[in-house]
Amino acid sequence: MCTSLLTVMLANGSLNPALPSLSTDPGLTTLQQTRVIDLCSLTFAALLFTAATVGDRYGRRVVRSHSRGG
Fold first, then answer.
1. What separation in angstroms does the CA of 27 have from each of 12, 30, 31, 37?
2. Are 63 and 55 in contact (CB under 8 A)?
3. In this structure, are residues 51 and 63 in contact, taking their beta carbons and an 8 Å threshold?
4. How far apart are CA 4 and CA 16, in angstroms?
5. Torsions phi, psi of 12, nearest 5?
6. Sign, Cα dihedral of 63, 6, 26, 20
7. Which residues, at least 6 apart from 59, have a Cβ–Cβ distance to it below 8 Å?
8. What average pLDDT does this structure show over 33-57?
9. Please, what sign has the CA dihedral across residues 54, 58, 61, 65?
10. How far is CA 69 from the centre of its chain?
């Protein structure tokens, strides 16, 4: 749980440098920027927890072998 939270926090941290370009290029307001960041983190966390659940249910090796295309 701690590792997944750390991963989500690092992913959010990588979005912070993109905030200035989000305000100038598409012309987003501060509230819209906040919603974009929240949606990105929510989507990433949902996919992370889904992958963890599948890994727990079917086994880590099976999931990793299918994710590599093998």
1. 21, 10, 12, 15
2. yes
3. yes
4. 19
5. -65, -40
6. negative
7. none
8. 84
9. negative
10. 22
CA angle 10, 12, 17 (to 5 degrees): 105
Pure H helices in 1-70: 2-15, 19-24, 30-58, 60-67
List, in sequence order, every beta strand (DSSP E) within the chain. none
Q: How far apart are CA 25 and CA 21, in angstroms?
A: 6
Question: How many other C-beta atoms can be found within 10 angstroms of the C-beta atom of residue 16?
Answer: 9
Rounded to two decimals, what is the model's pTM?
A: 0.63
pLDDT for 1 equals: 60
